[in-house]
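Feature request disguised as a bug report, sorry. It would help if multi-protein outputs had a clear separator. Right now it looks like this:
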Amino acid sequence: MTIDAARAAILDLLAERQPEATICPSEAARRVAAGSSPEIAADWRAAMPIVHAGVDQLLAQGAIRLRWKGQTLPARTGPYRIARAPESDPENGHSAPPARG
């Protein structure tokens, strides 16, 4: 389990969904855990710290946005869902990386 695997899982899950869809961080943790050893795969919660670190990196790069109940969140605090960033993010001047897949 690596941060790179978490980042890839997040971007892959978003690429599989409609552009306006969001994903739960636990979905990424389940995908990361599924590619790990059997004892880790059985407890996807063990992957959550790595997923949170991947979320923080992708957010800092402008590759994703965090949302909760229709509101954009500036940082990962409390419950959140992960959304695609627009192709060009005027808030922070970043461009989103190309979709994986």
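(second protein starts here, but nothing in the output says so)
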Amino acid sequence: MPWRRRASATAPVRADRTEKGRRAHMGMSVTIAAATEDDAERILKLQYLCYQGEAELYGDYSLAPLTQSLADLRAELDAGPVLVARLGDEVVGSVRATVDGDGTAVISGLMVHPRMQRHGLGGRLLAAVEERLAAERSARRYRLAAGHRNEGNLRLYRKWGYEPVATEQLTRKITLVTLEKGAASVHGDARQEAAALARSA
């Protein structure tokens, strides 16, 4: 809708601040908890929605998250901790992980509903799964990966202290970037810093 001719020059700024406030409120009203068995289908639907952008980015709609069956997803969810972000009864985000024998936690499936992105949920989910992995699985390091063109995810991971350690050419179009960081207890000032990062992620 066009701006009215008599609108002041500061009106767009005030509107932008209002929108930012609304988004922040929406992000913080979301709760994060362990997934239940009933969430598997919701996670699969969210996964299909969230990876459309990734498929478009690479021009490849055969990506594994878009072709995964519900049975395969259930098996994957049984392998380690799975968290979901809920807005009311709706699952609007998720993340999962496994821990291998040497204490390396492999984090995967970090996703946020498109309409809820840029509300800090990605950072909150990442912080929550890291904390759970350290407390319950004695994780010594965290590892995750992203496609080389996924600047949003790569930027988020670097913000949370992850550093690239390897690349792998998956297909002619896709290079996978693996990032890692050491696990550390989050408490006191560190916890406050993590919370601040989550709000701004």
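Even a blank line would do. Unrelated, but nice: Residues 1-25, 185-201 have pLDDT under 50 and may be disordered.
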